[in-house]
Amino acid sequence: MIGVTRLGLVGYGVGGRLFHAPFIQAAESVELVGVVTRNPARRAEAAADLPGVPAYDTLADLIDAGVDAVTVTTPPATRRALVLEAVSRGVHVVADKPFAPDAAGAQELVDAARDAGVKLAVYQNRRWDADLRTAADLLASGRIGTPWRVHLRMDQDDLSTLERGPTAGLLRDLGAHVVDQMIWLLGPVRAVTAHLDVLDFPEGPTDAAFVVDLQHESGARSYVEASKANHADGKELRIYGSSGSYRATPGDVQFEAIMAGRRPADEGDAWGFDAEERWGVLSTDAGQERIPSSAGRYQDYYTQFGAACRGEGPLPVTGEEGARTVAVLDAARESHATGRTVVLG
């Protein structure tokens, strides 16, 4: 009989409530057994959202009650200490992104988990976006041929959600997702060129938009860009290959569904498909063809993580993969500061 992984959620802000809890509940053989938050309003939200799931004041209290793993989705300033505490108690961990402020900090967490003999995963859930899964399936079909270039834009008209300060910013936040997506799609990065648009806030200078040029070891190139400062909103994905091209302007399917009050546990296999009017177009010698959306399912991340905790398969995103993504973000910041392309070692 397949076992069940008992998982606790540390933090119940917007991320914990909307981007973790619903997908933990929809995952196979994973049980959400507790939430850590001391905030009275968030405790009330958790009680309403998650009937029967107890709330705890501290991570230690949650671990003492009995868990196999925890997801740490508190603000970045508190995340490192909580990940290290869970690891030291022999508990498997999902660390939300940004995984760490820099590559050295990421490696510290990877080393701590290895030394403790526990599994450390990074919540790069956007590998399970519908548009990225559609692109991956299309590339695997060979119909585009060898991929030459991929362009990905993800703008969000919501400056209020920008994490501010010189160690925060959009590159560390949304940039961690789009860079990870391109590494997953095209392979490791060997060189980075970047430009950041920086705004001054009371918390300090903060990048609020970026464009990053990634040269992959495969020979392919990707260009990722995003903004929260330009009153622009929407996604665009373009792929150019030796046999054709693909262009899509997809929706942020799962985010839109969650914000509309829908939940993956209620919709089963119908969850996560982009609307037909937003399907992308493949152009080849044979003409143009609209490509149906593949499914985007963040819950599959947690199904795979739970299985890995039980020794039944690999992690969905390893700590080492998370550290490599952070190293690319470090290189992007260095490129912006120096005006040069940075080659990764």
What does this protein look like?
- The longest helix is centred in the last third of the chain and has 20 residues.
- The mean pLDDT is 97.
- The chain has a nine-stranded mixed beta sheet. The chain has a six-stranded parallel beta sheet with strand order 3-2-1-4-5-6, with helices on both faces.
- The chain is globular, with a radius of gyration of 20 Å.
- With 345 residues, it is of the alpha/beta class.
- The protein folds into two domains: 134 residues, NAD(P)-binding Rossmann-like Domain (Rossmann fold); 183 residues, Dihydrodipicolinate Reductase, domain 2, CATH 3.30.360.10.
- The chain is built from eleven helices and 15 strands.
Care to give the gist of this entry?
The chain is of the alpha/beta class. It has helices spanning 14-26, 40-49, 59-65, 76-88, 103-116, 130-141, 170-186, 253-259, 264-267, 299-309, 319-338; strands at 5-10, 30-36, 55-56, 69-72, 92-95, 120-122, 147-155, 189-201, 204-216, 221-227, 234-241, 244-248, 280-284, 287-291, 342-343.
Keywords:
345 residues, alpha/beta, Rossmann fold, Dihydrodipicolinate Reductase, domain 2, 2 domains, 9-stranded mixed β-sheet, 6-stranded parallel β-sheet, 11 helices, 15 strands
Strand order of the largest sheet: 14-13-12-11-7-10-9-8-15
Give the tally of β-strands.
15
Number of helices: 11
Helix amount? 25-40%
- Which sheet architecture does the biggest sheet show? 9 strands, mixed
**Uncertain residue ranges:** none
Number of domains: 2
The CATH topology assignment of the largest domain is: Dihydrodipicolinate Reductase, domain 2
How far apart, in Å, are the first and last alpha carbons? 45 Å
Q: Topology as H/E string? A: EHEHEHEHEHEHEHEEEEEHHEEHHE
Structure classification: alpha/beta
